[in-house]
Write a structure and sequence with these properties.
- By secondary structure, the protein is mostly helical.
- It has two domains: 2-108, no CATH class; 115-324, no CATH class.
- Helix content is 62%, strand content 6%.
- The chain contains 14 helices and five strands.
- It has helices at residues 2-15, 17-38, 50-75, 82-107, 115-125, 138-150, 167-173, 180-188, 194-201, 216-219, 238-258, 263-282, 286-297, 304-314; strands spanning 132-135, 158-161, 206-208, 222-225, 228-231.
- The mean pLDDT is 83.
Length: 327
Amino acid sequence: MLGALAVGGAVLAALVPRARALGAALLAVAVVGFASGWAGAPLGPTRFGAPVLAATAAACALAGVAMQAIVRAIVEAKVPLARASAAMVLVLALAIPVDSADEALLRTLPRASGASALWDDLAWGELPPRTVVLITDARLGRRAAAAQATGALRGDLAVVPAQTRGTAASRVLSEDAALVPLWRDLELAGAPSEASLSSLASVRPLAMAFEPRWGRALGRHLVPVALLDRFEPEPRGASDRKRALDVFAPKRERLARAAGKDPELAEAAAYLLRARALDVASSGDRDLVGRTVEDLHAFAPDDPVGAAIVARVVLGKGGSKVEDLRP
């Protein structure tokens, strides 16, 4: 709609001699700004380059020309209540930017800063657009609900609970046809299959935390993306996980410092990193086990699962099997 109105506004500005120069300048800003996206400027959904923002502003100004023409046409129409109808259209048009400004203001409130904001950025902000997040634990579900309440959870993410009981879970799973195979597995078997997750991951990005009871086969598909792990359609090797852990290391240090005084955030991060350590340990990759356990100990220094993983995989002292441990 914005694009159509902007084109209409550019045409109308070109037809008026006094507005022709200003319209041409706005059109040039819009074209150059959006073209910069092809040259590498961030186009969203979480980061936008300055030229793209300038282009959007110019497009909105041109769209305003078209909207003004629409309102004036309604005012001059030979119909009853023409002026009242035009006023209603104007109020509805003003509601859109006011609603957007309200969402932007919500993100600047003090409650959206600090450790909680950093946790949300690493959990949700690092995910690719239109990611499906499979929730396997109540702690992560509560964090997702809190992020949604404060506006920190992006609208393009689909949060899917692994427990399908309840109308809320069924409503989320029925919104997209790509989620039907996953829904079927969760309802019939209580756990997703490798085939259903791979099928979903080939259509939309899929993120989750490793669940040992679902088996090693699923863990081979997981690659770290900040706090969560992305499920790839095909199994990935140790080199892919190593690169992802290298990127996550400085972010983990910042989050550990910020969450040091918030036990709830530290426990939520420890749960996700504990699941990652179990995933790496189940694959038997000793080189990466130490890295993942170190990440876990940054939030839970005395975690017994991390100690058991080191004893089993790194030191070879036996003890509990990795499959028997729980995140």
